[in-house]
Amino acid sequence: MALCLTALAGAAQVKAAPLKVEIYNPGEKGAFPVSSEIISGKSEVLLVDAQFRRSDAEALVDRLKATGKILTAIYISQSDPDFYFGLDTVTAAFPGVKVLATPQTVSAIRANKDAKLAYWGPMLKDQAPRALIVPQAIAGESLRIDGEVVKIVGLDGPSPDRTALWIPSERTIVGGVVVFAGSHVWMADTQTPSARKAWIAELDRIIALKPRRVVPGHFIPGADDANALSVQSVKFTRDYVQAFDEEAARASDAALLIAAMKSRYPSLPGEPVLEMSAKVAKGEMKWP
């Protein structure tokens, strides 16, 4: 009996500690309210996305060092520069750390990184990256933190360059660029009806997981966290993408599309995002 109790006690001791998710998001102080996440286990941490401006990447480094844990990898969920421009700052602080992304995200970053820097560099000035870091392609469909599995959502879907992460043990979705909350949604990278329908399907897949907590890739912290950090943000994004798709099909130009979306979402902040998205959707502006 004593031997049995000892074995049970030993099993309890080796049981993995719950994973914790800390959010860094500069909110209205940043160029974009983009989220990075520090997922922590007992002794290891995983960083998801690396910020846009150098100063925000430096703040992220301070958060990582404050954990006192080993940064085992950085996962980049999307090829937009606000998710990876900060990589040079973070990797300089943690030499040798692995930077990972899906093969499709890696390809997209390689294809557009120079054009993105040419566009954003003059605006960012000293906040721009001093070097562009390209992730290596991840092998497999998951990552591990102290033995706990973190699954990549979207690898087998139509847009494997735009992924989210699912932490089964915590029933938490780290949404990446596919989830927004509380502002107009950036639609310029999904320029066709088929791309928008694929996005809606991905959001439905996330909803089906029944997450307890959701971290949107873009949101304003503190504005409405009860909804922003729940499945409501996924439903909001899905409904917005559906509305944009419907109105884009009806509108003959960007001005009419903007007016229609403002009518549906009269108090939503982020109108410059809507304006650019509408111009791209109606062929009045080329992006990227």
From TrEMBL:
Domain called Metallo-beta-lactamase: residue spans: 33-218
Pfam families cross-referenced by the UniProt entry: Lactamase_B
Superkingdom per UniProt: Bacteria
Signal sequence annotation: none
InterPro entries recorded: Metallo-B-lactamas (IPR001279), NDM-1-like (IPR050855), RibonucZ/Hydroxyglut_hydro (IPR036866)
Bilayer-spanning residue ranges: none
This protein's name: MBL fold metallo-hydrolase
